[in-house]
Amino acid sequence: MVLREQSVSPPAAVERESALGGAASGTFPPGFLWGAATAAYQIEGAVAEDGRRPSIWDTFSHTPGTIANGDTGDTACDHYHRYPEDVALMGEAGLGAYRFSIAWPRIQPEGRGPAEQRGLDFYRRLVDSLVEAGIKPVATLYHWDLPQALEDEGGWSNRETAERFGEYARIVTEALADGVAMWTTLNEPWCSAFLGYGSGVHAPGRTDPAAALSAAHHLNLAHGRGVAAIRAATAAPVTVSLNLHEVNALTQSAADLDAARRIDAVGNRIFSGPMLDGRYPQDLLADTRHIVDWERLVRPGDEEAIGAPIDVLGINYYTPTLVSAPESVGTAAAAGFEPAVTHGVSAHSPWPGSESVVHYQPAGEVTDSGWAIDPRGLYRLLTTVHERYPSMPLMVTENGAAYPDGPDESGAVQDVRRIAYLQSHLGAIGDALADGVDVRGYFLWTLLDNFEWAYGYSKRFGLVHVDYATQRRTPKASLGWYARFARENTR
């Protein structure tokens, strides 16, 4: 779906390169959502309060050797207790929307059964405070924190988990329907399936290709069940957030193009196919049929349920993907491209059926996470998805960069590199809008420095600096810049 060809020479610029000074005044349409995004386990803390039981990330982060520096999300940003301060920061900056996630183990501590009212009450308070501050609440039902009790029964490799998700979605949407402006079923199911069950670098830490593919299907089915539950409770718009890989082939050789096709299939179309086309792509099934029996996995009616219409497609973008067949490694080396590690410290691949494909570190400047900075990749991704699905509105639901900036002698945080990153990527969205792509909003990752999964607290993506020892919040220069940009560039 987002397959691109790229030679070993630098790729051609888009017709109208995004200006570093940002988009021109009035680039973004009325009603464009300007927001920031977070996830429950990364910020809330309070992991054993008010009836909450462990999630897979509680278990995983307490397993030695899984997280940088042995960090856990036990306290994180203490948002569970400090959310009024965080909402006030957003209100003072004039952000129009806040994309947050709901912790399943706060609502159903064992993943099934009646709701824990104290958990629902917390999210009611959060939603009410956002509405009072004039900020649209955008709720994500699942951002990776599966109740550990369900993982003990097989987790996402077990079909029953999708059914349990549908019940959870019903409980939450019925409880919060009056306040939430938009609902997201899943965030980045690719990471849940293939980093969690394939390479094992994310919770629950399993390394089974068949389980990873089964998890992908059951996450898709959970999305379908979630859409049905949301539609039954509210007329608010429904979306899903996919971290679509902007895939580039190293050369235009048949082998490299096929390598890119394979990654596009298991990285993108495994989700967009059933969700947006109503069926799994045949080449994906052929690539992976030696791993999983798709005819047994996908039951009659599954694809129809997964393909329930959504109102907008959320896209998360950070960096492009450059790949080749093994025989092109020498060509890549001669052009200065180094093979990239795509699965962290794990020896297991997150690409079942395509383990032989070679991934490369794209050339150019990188963030503190080592991710190549390429705003053109965001432009290409948006325009390609628009070409494939011209009637589907799009929304950038995550985009951002990690930099280690902290307070200077005056106490200010001058994160100029993040501002430059934002300028270029927002300019790319402006270019896409000018070329007719229907983009409805932008959510910067992230509001607060937080627990960044396997990175622990070693990477700071936030618009607000958090001193984890004191929980002191310090707005960075980028927060003010982002707020001004939104005001000045919306018609």
Automatic annotation (TrEMBL):
Coiled coil: none
GO biological process: carbohydrate catabolic process
Domain of life: Bacteria
Recorded GO CC terms: cytosol
Entries under SUPFAM superfamilies matching the protein: (Trans)glycosidases (SSF51445)
rRNA processing in keyword set: no
Record Pfam families: Glyco_hydro_1 (PF00232)
Keyword set includes Cell membrane: no
UniProt keyword annotations, A-Z: Glycosidase, Hydrolase
GO MF term set: beta-glucosidase activity
Record InterPro entries: GH, GH_1_N_CS, Glyco_hydro_1
Family to which this protein belongs: Belongs to the glycosyl hydrolase 1 family.
Name of the protein: Family 1 glycosylhydrolase
Organism: Actinospica acidithermotolerans
Lineage: Bacteria, Bacillati, Actinomycetota, Actinomycetes, Catenulisporales
